[in-house]
Every structure is written in C-alpha cells, then in structure tokens.
Design goal:
binds zinc ion, 22% strand, binds guanosine-5'-monophosphate, HIT family, subunit A, alpha+beta
Amino acid sequence: MEECLFCKIIRKEIPADIVYEDENIIAFKDIQPAAPIHILVIPKKHISSINEIESKDEALIGYIYTKIKEIAKMQGVNETGYRVIVNCGKDAGQEVMHLHFHLLAGKKLGEKIVD
Ligand code: 5GP
Ligand code: ZN
C-alpha cells in the first residue's frame, strides 16, 4: 500500500475537494490555491514524477491531457484560458512525489512562468 499523500486522497483516507473522478484519474482542489482556480489532476496509478513515466504509460498521459481540457471546460475557463504546470524534482519544487498536473486559471496569470 502506497504511503504517498495523493494515494491516500485516491483511497479517500484523506479528504479532498474532488471536482472529477473516473477509473484512471482524480482531480481535486489544491489546498493552497495559487490562483482562483487551482486543481490538481493526478493519475490513480502511482507514478512518482515525470522521471518515472514509462512507455506503457503513454496512453494514460495523453488521457490526462484530454481530461484536463474537459475539466477546464467544466470550470468555465476553457475560453478564457488556463495554465498546466508539472513540477519534477527538487529544482522545480516538487513537494509531493506522485505525478500531478496543476491546472491554474481564473485570472490573468503572470507572464513569467519562472522567476
Ligand atoms: P508540487 O509543489 O509538488 O508541484 O505541488 C504539490 C501541491 O499539492 C501544492 O500546490 C500543495 O498546495 C498541494 N497539496 C499538498 N498537500 C495537499 C493536501 O493534503 N490536499 C490538497 N488538496 N492539496 C495538497
Ligand atoms: Zn501516490
């Protein structure tokens, strides 16, 4: 059993504000939102980071982007725009070692994506 925080959210051992769920992914609101809409989209399969993605995961990664597009539409930001960020490793500030896609929207986002 994975001890990872996001696996616990998947198993509903830790509460989260879930906005979408199916057999492959779960999407929930970030606990410390950096924008009016800040959703984390994660695969139910435990993959620690981009570095651990394998060729057999290619369809899953494509699926995640297809669902991100749909979640953005559900949130009403598909036309106004949104940003998708994936941090990988220490220098990117990855804190939770379960692959997650930040979906950020709801305001004009900063022009710099790094500072
Ligand atoms: P990272 O820095 O690893 O790319 O992003 C991890 C994100 O997970 C952060 O934005 C942080 O606010 C969020 N987060 C950490 N713990 C929890 C939690 O228990 N619940 C939720 N919903 N988000 C969390
Ligand atoms: Zn996990």
